[in-house]
Write a structure and sequence with these properties.
The chain is built from 23 helices and two strands. With about 575 residues, the protein is mainly α.
Length: about 575
């Protein structure tokens, strides 16, 4: 295993020299139907560095915007006197993020990557501004939804742009770079959230996005040289798979809302919950029917799922997204409630997980680029991820810091490799014409998994705390028990430290045991990913690359079967 210095040097070398072999030339006659590819050209080292810096900044902001909330949400909930705000400030972002992802990918097929990533950046900027100036919890949640929609576009388009710029083998290192950005944002997000809430104001969690997203916008505007098709606005709007976008958005929202409501706000047997689940499933079925039979330009062509290996890669992606986010989201809660850490300290305590994760991800990208082998990192990652989150089950009030750090290292080693390796596995069996759709499906799967993870994890935790409400009421009194029961528990984690010693131990035990049930859930799901990884096939990674064509003319050629 290479050390941090070697990994850094290798990444810098990759950025400076992305093409080991000159791409095969292909000339596209202006009078012919588009073949799906245009002639690749070597970009200067400076241009590549600038483009990647802008794309990394975009990815950084979207992840930071979610992770910064993990330590700021309790303060925000208290500011607006809203216990429901603890859930919805995070959930609104994830809901909009997951639901919007597939549509962004298809929009970029019609109007080009550059145009749509600029639109997504602008949407993210507007959402951040709304959040920063919010005067009510409703306004804040609405702003978070706008942010989530823009963030969904940024995440998918960053990955699509990298896929368009580099060959399937060379892009592994760049995906590794994005994964490092994810990990760094995941590490410093809680830390920044704590610093802003303690030293400045929680509003700075959103204000920080404004200059950064503006910088990213203008750098992409002037540096990203992917072809922009001249698609007429009206024709492009007519070409959008509106029914597909509406049905997948509706199905996603109803699925996540049913998880949000079930067992917490309403009983699982409540007609409201049952209706939301039923309509969600029906809407999901309508989406697949539309993609198969009705859509002229489907946002998620079903041919993506014809290979068993692709389905397995997407399942590994789902498990990875579901499991990874839980460490970043619920470990800070453990640190604050059980070990009495401040928001800032809880961010610091999370560093072993994030640092190891980022280094492992970097080494994985370099390994794939050098060897062309991606199955070994997938297997290595899923096994250690299962082991690491299984070890988290042992976290309790008496766990030593040596164990806490070691457990995080094992989990980080497992999570790191599978940010990019399953995507590479998927892209090896996806044709150039379906590159954006395949990448969209992958990112949608990860975003959906992360959204379900946070919501379902919250439901499990809240229900576990609710089951302990009678005991808490007996030992702490009804007033304190009400603060630490059910959906109020997470937002009142800091209350634990204000209790007398005997009462504090009771509350700490309740939190640690409830969080322990969460780790059982995540370790069990990780086992599914470990099994699924065995069904991913091995393919040769090509070093040659031609940049895909976008635009309505090419979409029509794809539909008619003329495009490659």
């Amino acid at each position: 295993m290479m050390d941090a210095k070697d990994a850094t040097e290798e990444i810098l070398t990759t950025i400076a020299n992305p093409y080991e072999e000159k791409s095969q030339e292909m000339t596209v006659a202006s009078t012919a139907l588009p073949t799906g590819q245009v002639e690749s050209h070597d970009r200067s080292k400076t241009r590549i560095t600038v483009i990647m810096a802008a794309l990394c900044l975009s990815a950084f902001l979207t992840v930071l915007d979610f992770m910064i909330m993990t330590t700021a949400i309790p303060t925000i909930s208290e500011h607006f006197n809203s216990s429901a705000g603890y859930t919805w400030v995070g959930s609104a972002y994830l809901l909009a993020n997951a639901a919007s992802t597939p549509t962004w990918g298809k929009l970029s097929d019609i109007w080009g990557r550059k145009s749509i990533i600029l639109v997504a950046t602008a949407v993210f900027f507007i959402g951040s501004l709304i959040c920063g100036i919010s005067t009510s919890i409703l306004m804040l949640v609405s702003g978070r939804a706008v942010q989530g929609a823009g963030g969904g576009g940024l995440i998918i388009l960053v990955n699509i742009c990298i896929s368009d710029l580099f060959s399937v083998r060379n892009r592994a290192a760049y995906f590794g770079l994005i994964a490092i950005v994810w990990a760094v944002a995941g590490a410093i997000g809680p830390l920044l959230g704590g610093l802003f809430t303690q030293l400045l104001s929680w509003r700075w969690c959103f204000y920080i996005n404004l200059p950064c997203s503006a910088l990213s916008f203008f750098v992409i505007l002037f540096s990203l040289d992917l072809k922009v098709p001249e698609t007429p606005l009206v024709a492009g709007l007519k070409a959008i798979d509106w029914l597909g976008g509406i049905t997948i958005t509706g199905a996603t929202l109803m699925l996540l809302l049913s998880l949000e409501f079930g067992g917490v706000i309403f009983p699982w047997t409540s007609p409201k919950v049952i209706c939301v689940i039923t309509f969600g499933l029906v809407t999901g079925a309508l989406f697949f029917l539309n993609e198969a039979k009705l859509a002229r330009y489907p946002i998620m062509p079903l041919r993506l799922f014809k290979h068993r290996s692709n389905i397995a890669a997407l399942l590994v992606c789902f498990v990875h997204g579901f499991t990874y986010i839980s460490g970043s989201y619920y470990l800070p809660l453990y640190f604050q409630a059980v070990h009495g850490a401040s928001p800032v300290r809880s961010g610091i305590y999370l560093l072993p997980y994030a640092v190891v994760l980022s280094l492992t991800s970097a080494c994985t990208g370099i390994f794939i680029r050098k060897t062309g082998r991606y199955l070994e990192p997938i297997w290595f990652g899923t096994i250690l991820m299962t082991l690491g989150f299984g070890l988290f089950i042992d976290l309790d009030v008496n766990t030593t810091w040596v164990k806490i750090v070691l457990f995080q290292i094992v989990a980080g080693l497992g999570v790191g490799p599978n940010f990019q390796a399953p995507l590479i596995a998927l892209q090896t069996l996806v044709s150039a014409k379906d590159n954006a759709s395949g990448t969209s499906a992958f990112i949608f799967t990860r975003n959906l998994a992360s959204s379900i993870s946070v919501v379902l994890g919250g439901v499990v935790f809240q229900n576990c705390m609710e089951l302990r409400s009678a005991q808490l009421s007996k030992e702490l009194g009804p007033g304190i028990a009400a603060q630490l029961s059910g959906r109020h528990a997470a937002s009142n984690a800091m209350v634990v430290q204000s209790l007398e010693l005997a009462q504090r131990d009771v509350a700490r035990t309740a939190f640690s045991e409830s969080l322990g049930m969460l780790w059982v859930l995540y370790a069990s799901v990780a086992v599914v990913g470990m099994v699924a990884s065995g069904f991913i096939s091995r393919q040769t990674l090509c070093k040659e690359h031609e940049e895909p064509v976008t635009g309505l003319e090419y979409e029509e050629a794809k539909r008619e079967g003329f495009a490659e």
